[in-house]
Design brief:
Strand order of the largest sheet: 3-2-1-4-5
Number of strands: 5
CATH superfamily: 5'-nuclease
CATH topology: Rossmann fold
Radius of gyration: 15 Å
CATH architecture: 3-Layer(aba) Sandwich
CATH class: Alpha Beta
Strand content: 5-15%
Helix content: 40-55%
Shape: globular
Length: 166
């Protein structure tokens, strides 16, 4: 259950792409009526799931992600129906503003080449951001089990979206 996840030790929540995209999709489907996007929702299948996730997020003083994550979301938005893209971007802006989301730039040349080659630039940037904020004991929110394992193996606390919403 979401309440059993240790939050007190961390003041920083780092978002991977998946959980952010689920928030955007949920809002697009339920607030804008974009029913065609419902098939893309993999985790936030109900109001209680959404409520548990937003409650979990609200416990953190600082929320952040990387520019790579935002670029990946941009790519996903570009693949949606053209006439709805502006409204989806409005959701992204609103979510970032309501959460007080920070964006951190993790430069490619600062990431280990082997890591980028193995997991890709997006996941490598999330891991690298976590390592850079290690003194703050960040928690990484993802729906990517291999990334969670990589983060946990590097001494970072990663939590899977399913753990938060179930």
């Amino acid at each position: 259950m979401a309440s059993s996840i240790e939050v007190a030790a961390s003041q920083v929540l780092i978002f991977d792409t998946g959980p952010l995209w689920e928030l955007v999709l949920y809002s697009a489907v339920h607030n804008l009526g974009y029913a065609r996007l419902k098939t893309e929702l993999h985790h936030l299948q109900s109001g209680p799931h959404f409520d548990r996730l937003t409650s979990f997020i609200s416990r953190y003083r600082r929320k952040t992600t990387t520019a790579y994550v935002l670029a990946e979301i941009s790519g996903w938005i570009q693949r949606t129906e053209l006439k709805g893209q502006r409204n989806i971007w409005e959701i992204v802006y609103d979510e970032f503003a309501s959460m007080g989301m920070d964006e951190d730039v993790v430069r490619l040349l600062e990431m280990p080449r082997e890591l980028v080659a193995y997991v890709g630039a997006v996941d490598a940037s999330v891991l690298q951001l976590g390592l850079g904020l290690a003194a703050l004991r960040p928690q990484i929110l993802t729906n990517d089990s291999p990334l969670a394992a990589k983060c946990n193996g590097a001494g970072l606390d990663a939590v899977h979206l399913w753990q938060v919403i179930s």
